[in-house]
Design goal:
Distance between the termini: 23 Å
Oligomer: single chain
Strand order of the largest sheet: 1-6
Order of helices and strands: HHHEHEHHEHHEHHEHHEHH
Helix content: 40-55%
Number of helices: 14
Length: 331
C-alpha cells in the first residue's frame, strides 16, 4: 500500500478516484518533490538517523505514519508498558522467557497480514451490496464508477474523463487477475489481492505492468532514464537539478538498468519496485533487537523490551500502535 512506502501507487482505486474528485485541479499536476515507488515501507525515509534517547521518531513515522504515530498519546507510559508486556508474552512463542529475532519477525509478519485484512474488512460493506459475502465486478464497478457511467456528459470535457476512462479497464484487468476461479466475483481473499496486489505473488505481474504504464509516457513498453526521473520529479524552474535527482540518475545507470541498454524492461522494473533481497520484517526485527539488547546475547528479555518500550510502541511489532489499545484475547 507503491514506488512507495507501504505501496503508495498501489492504494485503493476508490481512494484515488475520490482524491481526484475532491482535490482542486491544481493538485493534479506532477509532483515537484521526490516520489517513491519501491514496495518497501522505509523507502522514503533515507538512512536511519542516530536515536536521541528521547524519542524514536524514525520508527514511529516509518511504521505508523506521521498521523498514526500519535495513537499513543491516549496512553500513559505505565499503561503502555503493561499492555506491551502482554504482547511480549505472545511474541515469545516457545515460552522460554526470551524474544528472538526470528520470533519478532514472525510476529511482525503476522501483524502486517492482519492489518491488510482489517483494511479490507473496513471497506467490504461498501462494495458487497447484495450482502452475499462476495463482491462481483459489477458491484465494484457500480460502487466506484457508477456516477461516472451514469452521467458521462458531465465528465466529457474534463480531465476526469481521461482518468476514469483509463482506470476502469485497468481495475477490471486487476480484478480478473485477482479472481482466481474466474467467476467474476471476489471472495475476501481475492478482493484482498485486488486491493493489495503487492502482497500476493500471483498479482506481482499486474503491479509491474501498472507501474510501467504509469511511467512509460512514450508508449514504447520501456522506462528510459528521463521517464524514470519525471515520475519522481518535475523540473518546473530553471536551474540545476537537485542533488538527489543526480543521485537517482546514477542509481538508474548503475543499479536499475541491469542490462545497460539505457531503459528498463518489465524484469528490471520488477527488480526495482519489488526487491527480492529485502525482508522488511527481518530488518525491523533485527533493528529492535540490536537497539534493545543490553547484554548483547542477541535475544531480548521482557525487561529489556519494557525498558525500551517507547521504541516498540512505534514499531510493527505492535501493529502501528493499535495492538496496545485492543482486546488482546483476539490476538
Amino acid at each position: 500500500m507503491a514506488r512507495g512506502g507501504r505501496g503508495r501507487h498501489l492504494g485503493l482505486a476508490l481512494g484515488l478516484l475520490l482524491a481526484l474528485l475532491l482535490a482542486p485541479p491544481a493538485l493534479w499536476a506532477k509532483p515537484t518533490v521526490r516520489k517513491e515507488r519501491v514496495v518497501r515501507p522505509d523507502s522514503d525515509l533515507g538512512e536511519r538517523p542516530a536515536e536521541d534517547n528521547q524519542s524514536f521518531q524514525y520508527d514511529h513515522e516509518a511504521f505508523l505514519g506521521k498521523e498514526d504515530s500519535k495513537t499513543f498519546d491516549q496512553l500513559t507510559s505505565e499503561e503502555s508498558k503493561e499492555r506491551l508486556g502482554k504482547i511480549v508474552d505472545r511474541i515469545d512463542s516457545d515460552g522460554d522467557g526470551f524474544v528472538t529475532t526470528e520470533e519478532l519477525k514472525t510476529w511482525i509478519k503476522r501483524v502486517q497480514k492482519r492489518y491488510i485484512y482489517d483494511n479490507v474488512a473496513k471497506v467490504w460493506k461498501d462494495y458487497d451490496r447484495d450482502k452475499d459475502d462476495k463482491i462481483s465486478w459489477e458491484e465494484y464497478k457500480q460502487a466506484t464508477y457508477g456516477y461516472y457511467l451514469g452521467n458521462p456528459t458531465e465528465f466529457q470535457d474534463t480531465s476526469d474523463h481521461h482518468t476514469f476512462k483509463k482506470m476502469l479497464p485497468r481495475d477490471e484487468r486487476r480484478f480478473k487477475a485477482a479472481d482466481l476461479d474466474s467467476d467474476q466475483t471476489a471472495t475476501r481473499e481475492e478482493f484482498t489481492a485486488f486491493l493489495h496486489p503487492e502482497e500476493f505473488e500471483h498479482m506481482k505481474e499486474i503491479v509491474v505492468l501498472e507501474t510501467l504504464e504509469d511511467i512509460d509516457k512514450n508508449g514504447d513498453g520501456f522506462v528510459d532514464q528521463d521517464e524514470y526521473i519525471a515520475d519522481m520529479f518535475s523540473h518546473e524552474e530553471s536551474g540545476p537539478e537537485p542533488d538527489w535527482v543526480l543521485s537517482e540518475r546514477e542509481q538508474f545507470n548503475e543499479f536499475r538498468d541491469l542490462n545497460k541498454d539505457g531503459k528498463l524492461d518489465k524484469d528490471e522494473i520488477s527488480h526495482w519496485i519489488l526487491p527480492q533481497d529485502y525482508d522488511h520484517a527481518q530488518a525491523e526485527a533485527r533493528h529492535l533487537v540490536y537497539e534493545s539488547d543490553k547484554n548483547k546475547d542477541e535475544k531480548l528479555t521482557k525487561e529489556e523490551i519494557l525498558d525500551n518500550w517507547n521504541m516498540f510502541v512505534g514499531s510493527q511489532a505492535t501493529n502501528y500502535g493499535e495492538d496496545l489499545t485492543k482486546n488482546h484475547d483476539e490476538l
